[in-house]
Design brief:
Helix content: 25-40%
Strand order of the largest sheet: 27-31-32-38-37-36-35
Shape: elongated
CATH class of the largest domain: Alpha Beta
Number of strands: 42
Length: 840
């Protein structure tokens, strides 16, 4: 909400030397966030000038300029002279919308216009232009740039020559901007902010609604038909109409109103529209003006009927929903209630008689309509947060006053008053409740005075108070809400700042520590951690879903193209890679840890019969059933690599990322949780045949790794070779050693030996490695496959696997014989299982 200071000062006493910083500080002290400040950006001498004469001068470029003589004020001379001569400036102007005698705004040398655009005397078109006649856009007052600004168009033709145009046009005003939280919609008004400034400083507040005298109105036909109530609640609680006749819509909007609207973030449109916007900002009550001559009969407030359409003020034909609340006449819809009016009854240049509407609509209905039609507006923003029903009538009368005073209209007693609003329910506040919740010793007087200050009606009750909130505070429904108001009004600075002391013996759980270790290890290995949205499309979800699982489908997805919760992290990584590739990043090593959502198997859905209805408190069995109905949400780890693992360098060619690199990354993650993984060849419908592996811990499969199918990579605009891996991180942590503390480093030397075994070509190298580890016994510290040879010197259908072995004892230096004996144990076991022989 932007709050012009001059406007705020009309309804609350401001200090004479008030600054934007002071107002911001006061509003921050009562709970509003400081956002920004807004000024006119115009500085220096701006004066009222009058055109004395001008000479059109055609130029060689086809343009005609005017050499103007402009009076900008009297020239000071000796007191004996009865009449001061005029200060006349020669000014070059390219506009042609003025005549001799017109009064204009002249920016003299030294002035600075928005841009910034400094003004100086300069030679142009053969003359020295000593200033500039300004347009509306150049002054920052609007978008009009068809010519210079003529003061007669603003009704200021009687302004004296030489008068300060900055104050005349309201360009010396400034505004503060605050963030208004959804529960405090009353602060979307000068009225609400002025009251809050009064709370913060004690300054006298004057309610603008109290300055308007309601007039008895009757005769305008109004019906309320709630055909399809939202949540069985009526859509409208107040609906006030008033008629003004004989207005002149061509009359200019006064400069001070234009200036205030501009500072508040709204542009000037026409006098009637500007007045309705002005009152909305002042009172917080959205209003609307209808062309009385365009209305067919009276007004009805009802829900939309199937198949109805409405062309709104933005000239868009909108198909209406049965839940939409409408303003209609005898010919059909004339407005989407609380959101936007209809084009058929729009106030136009030919309008003379208008109907003013000020209403209070049900917030949920308005919020849904605005979102359904993607039509947010200043009106809907206020209605969906709650509008004070007690101010509707005053707002309508305020518009009538302004139309009479500024548009030359005549107030008519024709109108209607519909009011079925209900006073807010009283809330019981126990004595001592504020002190116990906030931690400050509040006295009874402080509690009572704080609540009375916000406009509440406070009466004593047994053990506390009965507090009836004011009509503009729809957010005060519980005793905790009232306690918040007490803390806010008495000052947040009274609340002590105490850091809680963590109980001893607590900290991160084992799982939390291990997850952090996995992320830190992968990041240290050069991978980049990313976070993707958990919402995916059905096709992408099914491509990587674990067997036997069903997706969790959202009832109200943010994106209709992605209505399912992810069952794998891979789709998110693919989208991330695709986005980064489009921005020129061609070498990617990405990982993500996060939850996946696995729906219950077919026929295992417990249904919703056990969900409690209404205000019933669920019992332990119901809560247990609710928890049991939730989908499984294990944490997974996924890795994606593409591009080069090693960049091209002098004398070294580039090496693309392959499956071995991703498997090494998985080993980094496994070591972080004290687990040992192995791999074996497998298949996956979305991965390359022959380049896919299961990832195992012991005999349990915890994930997979492989290359993405080239067809899928092509469909996603990814390189042909994309390597992926995904594992169940929860299972990996559960299968690791309970204590992941690294073993101490032995001070004894190692004994290294190589082992080359000849096995059948179909023998899985990973299983042979496992056998070598098992057969070598406790002395083996490290084993790794270093070569897979097939060719000359070996029989057809055979291969040679070479392993690098490292032996060490924790209590002595090994002899070569001990290491050889351990190696022979590996040879014997490999021979038994795979018919392996030592390679010569």
């Amino acid at each position: 909400m932007r709050v012009p200071l001059s406007w705020l000062g009309e309804w609350v006493d401001l200090p004479e030397d008030v600054t934007l910083e002071h107002v911001h500080a006061a509003l921050v002290s009562v709970g509003f966030e400081e956002e920004d400040v807004h000024t006119s950006e115009v500085t220096g001498p701006l004066v009222v000038g009058q055109v004395l004469e001008f000479t059109p001068e055609p130029q060689t470029n086809g343009k005609t300029i005017n050499w103007c003589q402009i009076a900008v004020g009297p020239t000071a001379v000796d007191d004996s002279v009865e009449t001061d001569p005029l200060d006349v400036r020669g000014i070059v102007c390219g506009a042609h919308n003025f005549a001799v005698g017109d009064k204009v705004v002249v920016t003299l040398p030294g002035a600075v216009l928005p841009g910034p655009f400094p003004i100086a005397a300069r030679k142009t078109y053969g003359h020295v232009s000593d200033g500039m006649m300004a347009s509306t856009r150049e002054l920052g007052l609007g978008d009009e740039h068809d010519g210079i600004l003529l003061l007669k168009d603003l009704g200021l033709d009687d302004a004296p020559v030489g008068a300060d145009a900055v104050s005349l046009l309201g360009l010396d005003d400034a505004a503060v901007e605050i963030n208004v939280t959804p529960d405090r919609g009353y602060a979307f008004s000068i009225r609400g902010v002025a009251r809050e400034y009064s709370h913060a400083t004690g300054a006298a507040f004057r309610d603008p609604a109290a300055s308007v005298t309601p007039v008895a109105r009757e005769g305008f036909r109004l019906t309320v038909a709630d055909d399809a109530p939202i949540r069985d609640r009526a859509g409208v609680s107040t609906f006030i109409t008033a008629v003004v006749r004989g207005i002149d819509v061509a009359k200019p909007t006064p400069p001070h109103i234009q200036s205030r609207l501009r500072l508040a973030g709204m542009r000037s449109i026409s006098l009637p529209v500007d007045i309705t916007n002005y009152v909305m900002l002042e009172f917080g009550q959205p209003t609307h003006a209808y062309d009385l001559g365009a209305l067919a009969g009276g007004i009805t407030v009802r829900r939309a009927k199937p198949g109805e359409h409405l062309t709104t003020l933005d000239d868009v034909d909108r198909a209406l929903d049965p839940e939409d609340l409408l303003i209609t006449d005898d010919d059909g819809p004339i407005g989407l209630a609380g959101v936007m009016g209809g084009a058929r009854t729009e106030v136009s240049a030919s309008t003379t008689d208008v109907v003013i509407e000020a209403a209070t609509f049900e917030p949920v209905s308005i919020a849904r309509s605005a979102r359904r039609h993607k039509l947010p507006s200043e009106a809907s923003r206020r209605f969906e947060r709650g509008v004070d029903p007690a101010v509707s009538r005053a707002a309508a009368e305020r518009i009538v006053e302004l139309l009479v005073a500024l548009a030359g209209g005549t107030a008519d007693t024709l109108g209607s008053v519909y009011d079925v609003s209900v006073a807010p329910a009283a809330v019981f506040l126990p004595e001592g409740r504020a002190s116990s919740l906030i931690g400050v010793d509040y006295t009874r007087d402080e509690v009572e005075e704080s609540l009375i200050a916000i406009g509440a009606d406070v009466t004593n009750a047994d053990g506390g108070w009965l507090v009836t909130p004011p009509t503009w505070r729809t957010d005060l429904r519980h005793d905790a809400d009232l306690v918040e108001e007490v803390a806010r009004i008495t000052g947040y600075d009274r609340i002590p700042s105490v850091l809680p002391v963590a109980p001893p013996g607590r900290g991160l759980t084992r799982e939390q520590s291990l997850r952090r270790g996995v992320a830190s290890g992968l990041a240290s290995a050069g991978l980049t951690e990313v976070y993707a949205y958990p919402f995916v499309s059905p096709a992408r979800n099914a491509a990587f879903a674990p067997l036997g699982t069903r997706p969790v489908t959202l009832a109200n997805p943010l994106d209709v193209a992605a209505p399912e919760m992810r069952m794998s992290l891979i789709p998110g990584l693919l989208d991330t890679a695709r986005r980064n590739l489009s921005r020129g990043l061609v070498d990617l090593d990405l990982f993500e840890t996060g939850s996946v959502y696995l729906g219950r198997a077919e026929g295992d859905d417990p249904g919703t019969d056990f969900i409690p209805v209404g205000a019933a408190h669920p019992g332990d069995e119901t809560l247990a059933a609710l928890n049991a109905s939730l989908p499984a949400q294990p944490r997974h780890l996924a890795i994606l690599s593409l591009g080069n693992a090693v960049d091209r360098q002098p004398g070294v060619g580039a090496r693309p990322t392959d499956l071995a690199d991703v498997l090494d990354d998985l080993r980094v993650a496994a070591r972080a949780v004290a687990a040992e993984i192995t791999v074996r060849q497998s298949a996956h419908p979305s991965l390359h045949p022959g380049r896919t592996a299961d990832v195992l811990v012991g005999d349990e499969v915890v994930g997979f790794a492989g290359e993405l199918l080239p067809a899928i990579a092509l469909e996603l605009d990814l390189p042909r070779q994309v390597v992926l891996a995904e594992i169940d991180l929860d299972r990996l942590m559960a299968l690791g050693r309970p204590d992941p503390t690294p073993a101490p480093i032995s001070g004894y030397p190692v004994a290294t030996q190589d082992l080359s075994l000849v096995v059948g070509a179909d023998a899985p190298a990973g299983e042979v490695l496992q056998t070598v580890v098992e057969g070598s016994g406790e002395l083996l510290e490290y084993a790794r496959l270093v070569d897979d040879y097939r060719g000359a010197g070996l029989e057809q259908g055979a291969k040679s696997l070479t392993f690098a072995l490292r032996f060490r004892a924790s209590d002595r230096t090994l002899t070569a014989a001990e290491a050889s004996e351990a190696k022979q144990g590996a040879v014997r076991l490999a021979g038994e299982r795979f018919g392996a022989t030592l390679r010569d």
